[in-house]
């Protein structure tokens, strides 16, 4: 998809998380977490259940406020400037949020109107977004008639409709079969590169991470490893990412999980 505004051609981080900690009452969910997401790159946030991935996403999207530490999206802190800072953000949550009784086009038009995108421009953008995800032929169908993989693609198309600089994906392939998961992984990597989008992809599935991706391994609220995925594997001396993950975290499961 051709991006309208190349707002971030400087290579500056589209997301900066600095010294962020978070507590639910007495329970610490995040412990001094710092990292950056760069434009055009996929950053995988890998962690076992309970590592703190969803908490982190809730802080970035401002569902919760981060009382400790600082979060900036394209250089602006949502805590300081409010929802304006969220404008460059696209989000695909774990839970589906499309209206099942509306068609793909109606869902996307509705989202575009919430974003203040005029109808004609919205139609052009949705065509490009659906093309990028190989889903344009579904545009007239009710979401209820689509399978899980196509619904996810439409959710992602909606997430990129307003040409975000930063795309957050919270375990976007949950419940999908392997070929569909791999197709979505490929689409996202192409989108990041073609449109210079910085992607933060939360997952616990090793096979969704490519060797060149930036990787953050989160365990019990702490970053236990970071770097290019292939370098993280090399540093642990493990055979593959699954084995490296096992060495780095308290997660009991082994190998490639799907
Ligand atoms: N509302 C809450 N109240 C208390 N503790 C919570 C709450 N939500 C999450 N936690 C705890 O905070 C920690 C981080 O949870 P979080 O959901 O962010 O992890 P996660 O990596 O997203 O896990 P999952 O993959 O299972 O969604 C966990 O120990 C969890 O039990």
TrEMBL record:
Residues 15-245 form the ABC transporter domain. One of its GO terms (molecular function) is ATP binding. SUPFAM superfamilies: P-loop containing nucleoside triphosphate hydrolases. The keyword Nucleotide-binding applies. This is Putative ABC transporter ATP-binding protein YbhF. NCBIfam families: PQQ_ABC_ATP. PROSITE patterns: ABC_TRANSPORTER_2. Keywords: ATP-binding, Nucleotide-binding.
């Amino acid at each position: 998809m051709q991006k309208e505004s190349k707002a971030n051609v400087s290579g500056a981080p589209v997301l900066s998380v600095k010294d962020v900690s978070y507590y639910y009452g007495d329970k610490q969910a995040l412990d001094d977490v710092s990292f950056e997401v760069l434009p055009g790159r996929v950053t995988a946030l890998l962690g076992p259940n309970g590592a703190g991935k969803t908490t982190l996403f809730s802080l970035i999207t401002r569902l919760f406020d981060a009382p400790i530490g600082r979060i900036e999206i394209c250089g602006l802190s949502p805590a300081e400037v409010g929802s304006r800072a969220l404008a460059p953000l696209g989000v695909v949550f774990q839970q589906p949020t499309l209206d099942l009784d509306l068609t793909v086009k109606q869902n996307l038009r509705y989202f575009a109107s919430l974003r203040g995108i005029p109808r004609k421009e919205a139609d052009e953008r949705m065509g490009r977004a659906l093309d990028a995800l190989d889903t344009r032929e579904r545009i007239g169908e009710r979401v209820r008639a689509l399978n899980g993989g196509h619904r996810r693609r439409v959710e992602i198309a909606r997430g990129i409709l307003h040409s975000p600089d930063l795309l957050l994906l919270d375990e976007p392939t949950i419940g999908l079969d392997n070929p569909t998961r791999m197709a979505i992984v490929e689409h996202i990597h192409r989108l990041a590169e073609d449109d210079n989008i910085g992607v933060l992809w939360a997952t616990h599935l090793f096979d969704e991470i490519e060797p060149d991706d930036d990787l953050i391994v989160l365990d019990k609220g702490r970053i236990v490893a970071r770097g290019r995925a292939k370098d993280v594997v090399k540093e642990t001396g493990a055979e593959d990412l699954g084995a490296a993950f096992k060495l780095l975290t308290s997660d009991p499961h082994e190998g490639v999980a799907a």
